[in-house]
Design a protein that fits this description.
The chain is an alpha/beta fold. The chain is built from 8 helices and 19 strands. The radius of gyration is 20 Å and the shape is globular.
């Protein structure tokens, strides 16, 4: 049995089988709705149910407030249609022609710029045309297990795929990457996924990264610079300690005047000459009025939630805040 879905305001329609979610069927149909984690934990895929009835798994409801549920909001990655439905959701024609698929890949190199970060570079077979927008992510597959990682390079910046992986104590997957992965090892990846990419605009842009949330920021800034975009670019990178600043690229970009500013912010450092505290607080300290800006944030759901709230209070348009929330996994 299938049900029909109409997306407003675009008017796009597609079909969903009774065992699939609204988002899963959309992705399979090459229709790109806003999404990130695919697991019901980040809230990025939130949409408003205008007509019809859906069934939500309990996990999906937990991220929505009682008020949002009363207003008819659902998570498309969790909602399964019971009847034909109509939803209000963002549709991204920029992603047309980009379809997730599984490909073999080989480990080109693995390096460790600091103790708890691995930079993994993968190469795809010459016959594979892997298209993505900077900011999207893939699922890396090792021995049947899979984890999601943002792509850390622009398509035209380097060949292949670059990933930034944080070590998780006791984590099975990060254990494989930090202690078992070898050059030339054959792996698989699936993707690309996500709707985190830079929209065309003339507004100055603030990138907000927490930890390895720098990975998609790196890809997006690389792309903007290679396309000689004239937008003002500000980068704020939140880390716990000075020794976790695992890339010098933002400093190099700033030193060569390619970006307007780079501000690393350290939450656990006390006596240093750098900015300390929460990374989004540093933005609030530096900008009295965020109207006329766009913000791209990648980090924990908690960081993204508070940043969005506080930035909107400082004048940022709600439609000018774009986010990719990632969750710690083993």
């Amino acid at each position: 049995m299938t049900n029909n879905v109409r997306i407003q305001p675009s008017g796009i329609e597609y079909s969903v089988s009774n065992d699939n979610t609204l988002l899963g069927a959309a992705i399979s149909s090459g229709i790109h709705l806003e999404h990130s984690c695919l697991s019901g934990n980040c809230g990025v895929c939130k949409a408003k149910l205008l007509q019809g009835e859906v069934a939500d798994v309990e996990q999906g409801q937990s991220i929505l407030t009682e008020e949002e549920i009363r207003q008819g909001y659902i998570l498309t990655c969790q909602a399964k249609p019971i009847t034909d439905v109509e939803i209000e959701a963002n549709y991204f024609p920029q992603l047309d022609g980009i379809k997730a698929s599984i490909h073999p890949c080989k480990v080109n190199s693995v390096s460790f710029p600091c103790d708890d970060i691995a930079v993994l570079k993968l190469r795809l077979p010459p016959s594979v045309s892997f298209k993505y927008l900077p900011g999207q992510y893939i699922q890396l597959i090792i021995q049947g297990e899979r984890r999601s990682y943002s792509i850390a390079n622009s398509m035209v910046a380097t060949d292949g795929i670059e990933l930034h992986v944080r070590f998780v104590e006791g984590g099975r997957f990060s254990q494989k990457i930090f202690h078992e992965i070898k050059e030339e090892q054959l792996l698989r990846l699936e993707g690309p996924y996500g709707s985190f990419f830079v929209r065309e605009s003339s507004y100055p842009v603030i990138f907000l990264a927490g930890g390895t949330g720098f990975a998609p920021v790196k890809a997006m800034v690389e792309d903007l610079l290679l396309r000689k975009c004239d937008r003002e670019i500000y980068i704020y990178w939140g880390l716990k300690r000075l020794d976790q600043l695992y890339s010098k690229l933002p400093q190099d970009w700033f030193a060569s005047s390619k970006i307007k500013s780079f501000v690393p912010v350290f939450s656990d450092e006390k006596n240093c000459n750098e900015r300390v505290g929460n990374v989004h607080t540093a933005v609030l300290e530096d900008f009295q009025d965020l109207s006329g800006f766009e913000v791209y944030a990648c980090g924990s759901p908690a960081m993204i939630e508070v940043a969005k709230r506080d930035f909107i209070e400082k004048g940022l348009s709600e439609s000018g805040f774009y986010a990719d929330a990632f969750l710690a996994s083993n």
